[in-house]
Structures are given as structure tokens and as C-alpha cells.
Amino acid sequence: MQRAALFGGSGGGDAQMAAGDLGELLVPYMPTIRVPKSGDRVYKTECAFSYDSPDSEGGLYVCMNTFLGFGREHIERHYRKTGQCVYLHLKRHVIEKVPGASGGALPKRRNAKLFLDLETNSDLNSDDFEYEDEAKLVIFPDHYEIPLPNIEELPALVTIACDALLSAKSPYRKQDPDSWEEELQASKHAKTLVQLDNGVRIPPSGWKCSKCDLRENLWLNLTDGSVLCGKWFFDGSGGNGHAVEHYKETGYPLAVKLGTITPDGADVYSFDEEEPVLDPHIAKHLAHFGIDMLQMQVVGNP
Q: I need a labelling partner for 200 at 20 to 30 A (CA). Which of 73, 86, 162, 209 fits?
């Protein structure tokens, strides 16, 4: 195992750690490493705060506790804020086939398996290029790298967690037609959502509809920060319908249900698409109104 010089440091490329020491190195962090359960969303295709992905130059870091993804510019902030030290680093490499080789042969690759739910780059001719996915465990703050697999050297829990993350489907991937399980899809508005710079800041609790006295089933409009009550949304909660009335007046399409925001995500509804959706940039959209989703938790009677 090598100490990586990923962030402009001078990590020694020749430093090696004995295989038997890997387990001891990870012991202090074992309580922070979780195996994804059924229903957990693994955000391994895009950063929570930017458009970085495993295709980006710095790859993507997936938290081994919350399963949120972070690009290089945001991973240090997450580590400092949460104290989480162990991340799965994912990187997709585009490999050009050897010109003139018989049958378009490829150079020898470290790992030919594709485990990331990414669409291939439509700008590249598939006859000329192939893709290779690379995964490592990275331990902060020293940026130690453990290339995967390493099945025999890692503790069983870590191996199981890594395998589960690598095989998990992206929450933004459409379900197979024969799947009975309904999956939320990413909203078409999420990537281009306009947020007004109106100075609105939302407190972590104590919300009330801005048009009536209701204090539950409240939705935060992600364009202008209005807090309004719902009515006929998918959770069946009652209300006076002020959130949908606001949409009809303004056309602002996305709202998040207050009280459901956690480090793992939040309930988001698209008025335009008339269904619950995923917002791949929910962390950035909430931060616009002063909400740090990494510090939020589910509250009673949301």
C-alpha cells in the first residue's frame, strides 16, 4: 500500500505497508464503515456539491458511512466537518485501442470490469475506445490508498461493504422494464435549476407555512426558499395546498419536504413532472438557503 500524493502533498511513492498491517490500520475506523442495506442510496456517480464524477480528473470519493459522493474539491471539507476517514475512491479511465492491432486489441489493463453505473461518453467512438474502472480505499488525513480488491488482506466487513458499494445501482439509473420495484428518477430540472439570490435562510427547525398556520407537511421551494404546506403529495399528508398554488403562480418546479432531510438525502417532489424525484444536487440546492444536509436529521411529524 502506498501513501498517495493526491492533493499536492509529497507522499512517498515507494512507501509500502505489509499486507498483515492493513487490518490493524482499519481497526480504528471500523465503527464508521457501513454495509449498504436494502433501500440505502449509494451516490457513486456524481458529487453532492458539484458535477464531478468518476469520469472527472480527480474521480469521485464515496463516504463509507453515508454513501454520499464527493469530488476532489469537496472531499477535504467533508472529512474536516464529519471526521469520516474512510472513502471509496472511484475513477473511470478511457483507454484508446492500439492502432493497427489485430482485432482492435487493447493494452493490458489492471481491471477490465465495469462496476460504475455510468453512461459511456457519446463523443467517443466505441470502436476506438474502451473503459476501465478503478477503485481504491482512501484513508484520511494521510491519504493512504489501498487498491481493490485485496480481499485476503482486508477485514471481512470492509470487503463486504466495498463489494456492496461497487455492485449497488445508481439511484439515478432507470429500472429494468421487468423490475417490480419502483425507483425514483432524477428530475429533469435538477441540473439546471435556477435559485434566486434573495437572501432567504431556512432554520433547522420551527418551520411554519408562510400562508397559513400549519406546522407539518411543509415543503421548501428550491427556487425561492418559500416554505408552504402540501396537500395531495405522495405521502398522503393533509394541508391547504399552498405549495402547489405557489408553483402554479411562479412555475418554480422543485420542492423538498422539510423534516426529511438527512445526510443520505431528502424527499423531493417535482410539480412539473407530478411525481417524487431525485435531485442529484440536493446538497448544493439546500446550501443555497443555509441548510447543511450533513448536519440534518429526521424530525418528528414531518
A: 73
